[in-house]
Write a structure and sequence with these properties.
0% strand, single chain, 60% helix, mainly alpha
Length: 285
């Protein structure tokens, strides 16, 4: 909507509000006369009620604090309901139109009359209190500086540019003159490295080595499988100077590093060779 359309809408709203105030002004003036107000007070009474409604509406639009805005809305709702009730009473009591009603008599039923008189007489005092409070809140309200708001908007836009799929290229400043780099320094590695004297050994560490545990089978180097004849030859060489009584399966197993079963077979074979001239080789289990 352009500026002309907005101005026309505001003008139409002002006209409607003015006509509505004129209708409500007639009813509130007659109610004010019924509760004992003179001609001047009765003339100003509608401005006390409906005027505070307009002030509360403006304060609701201006205030930004949530508590202050809620307070202004409550004042607006309370005075709107009060004006509606008094206009309703004015329509129910025909005597209010001609000014022939008794003073302080707005209803035939006693409790209802007392409540209506209390409502009508308390509205001016409430307008003084609530109107002053709303004006004070509006005057002490700190509006946002347009420069600060523009700066915050610009900061938000600059931060949001980093979320784009393609980042904005950074402007590259023109180089006025080529930059001269220093010449590389050549270093003779043969002269810079000091020779190590012959016979020098690394100092042995005095810290005790920690046990690393059992070496996994995957890290072990597989040993060549020896045949029965090779095991027998190794056993003969290892036990050549042993006595026949020293030929035990455990000793042979440690000497040739074989299994206990093969060590027992080798023990029997070696003892048989020692006891007879012809060697006998049993089948290896």
């Amino acid at each position: 909507m352009n500026r002309f359309g907005k101005g026309l809408l505001v003008f139409a709203l002002v006209v409607v509000v003015a006509m509505a105030f004129r209708v409500s002004w007639n009813a509130l003036r007659d109610v004010a006369r019924a509760i004992g107000a003179d001609s001047t007070a009765a003339l100003l009474y509608p401005f006390v009620v409906d005027g505070l409604m307009a002030l509360a509406l403006v304060a609701t639009l201006v205030l930004t604090d949530r508590a202050d805005k809620r307070f202004a809305l409550r004042v607006l709702a309370a005075y709107t309901i009060a004006s509606l009730v008094l206009n309703y009473v004015h329509g129910l009591v025909p005597e209010l139109h001609g000014g022939s009603v008794d003073w302080g008599r707005l209803a035939d039923w006693g409790p209802a009359n007392w409540a209506l008189v209390l409502l009508a007489t308390s509205l001016p005092v409430g307008s003084i209190y609530f109107g002053s409070d709303l004006v004070a809140k509006v005057l002490h309200h700190r509006s946002i500086d347009p420069a600060i708001m523009e700066e915050s908007t610009e900061t938000t836009v600059k931060r949001s540019t980093s979320d784009l799929e393609e980042s904005t290229p950074f402007p590259v400043a023109a180089v006025e003159a080529p930059v001269e780099l220093p010449a590389p320094v050549l270093v003779d590695l043969e002269k810079s490295i000091e020779p190590v004297p012959a016979g020098a050994v690394a100092a042995e560490s005095t810290r005790p080595r920690q046990a690393t545990g059992r070496v996994p089978d995957a890290a072990r180097t597989p040993r060549r499988t020896r045949s029965d004849d090779e095991l027998l030859d190794e056993a003969r060489s290892a036990t050549a100077d042993w006595a026949i009584d020293a030929l035990t399966a455990e000793g042979i197993r440690k000497a040739v590093r074989t299994s206990p079963a093969k060590a027992r077979v080798l023990r029997e074979t070696l003892r048989a060779e020692r006891s007879s001239d012809s060697p006998v080789m049993d089948e290896v289990a």
